[in-house]
Hints:
There is one protein chain. The chain is mainly β. Among the domains are: 5-115, Immunoglobulin-like, CATH 2.60.40; 220-296, Immunoglobulin-like, CATH 2.60.40. It has helices spanning 240-245, 310-319; strands at residues 5-7, 27-35, 44-53, 59-62, 66-70, 74-80, 93-99, 102-103, 108-110, 128-131, 138-140, 146-149, 153-155, 159-161, 165-167, 171-173, 177-179, 183-185, 189-190, 196-200, 208-212, 220-229, 233-237, 252-257, 265-270, 274-279, 287-296. Strand 20 and strand 21 form a beta hairpin. The radius of gyration is 26 Å and the shape is elongated. Mean pLDDT is 76; it is low at 7-25, 112-139 and 316-320.
Amino acid sequence: MKRRNLVLVFMLVMLLTNVVWAQMPQKFNYQAKLTNSAGEPLTGEHSFDFAFVDEYNYVLWQTQDVIISVEDGLYSVVLGDDYLSDAYYENNVWLRVTVDNELLSPNQQILPVLHAHRAGYADFAENASTAYNAEYAQWAQGAEYASAAAGNFYVSQNLQVTGAIICYDDIDAGGNIIAGGHLHAGGNISADGVKNFVIDHPLRNDKKIVYACIEGPEAGVYTRGTAELINGEAWITFEEHFELVVNPETITVQLTSLSAESEGLAVVEKTANGFRIKELRKGTGNYKFDYFVQGIRKGYEDYRVIRDKSEYESKNKIKN
């Protein structure tokens, strides 16, 4: 049977109902990524069937013809109900998924860590780790496939996944975080080292190119380009996306003339939409120039550079 790939952003996320220390979870917020056989993410409405089965493929709980809107391959659904017996979790349980009448394989085992009595706080996970309403924090030493958390996510050593890492709060790692998919945090991502982008060396198979991100004492944004002076004057209009993210009161502009005949350039007007340039000495030159515009991201004007150690030591106390 021709089957689709279900790339499990393998989730996971436990959505607990009536959570108490003595109860097992009865509902799960399941997130995954759906692609075709070529690995391309699918988009649109698809019909899903979900079932919890035991080792003999006996159905413990199931849904039928659930229509889910898939966006760029990603989707989520709440599985289970208030009447799902805790007794089901006393045995080995697998999740069976069918999409548009095509059975996906293999079934994904629901591991004990997903329904531990210590609900909301998972220590280690061999295949995946998750917490939805983490009372303290969610952390792991390693995960083979993917990891998600609705609370803070802390990694004491290295974390490497072949899928994606999704977190709706802060991400803090004592080691490296390597994701084959995307890495998303609704809060902050902190690193003691540098933040890199890494690509294969185009000429040497045994090498990679590693660039480090630019860092500074502000949450900065920028735009740049090349424009042309006409009769000694030019007006540069910002792209819409730059207007939407930059605080216009923080904008600075750098100019570089591309003509040896230039009398020099000056920025004579700055607005939220763009800036005006004139040639010095009332020049009327016609030539190109480069510009580089920087500003602070809206909402981050009060970014703090010097902070108390306690803001980060509290995280270590949680991890230890």
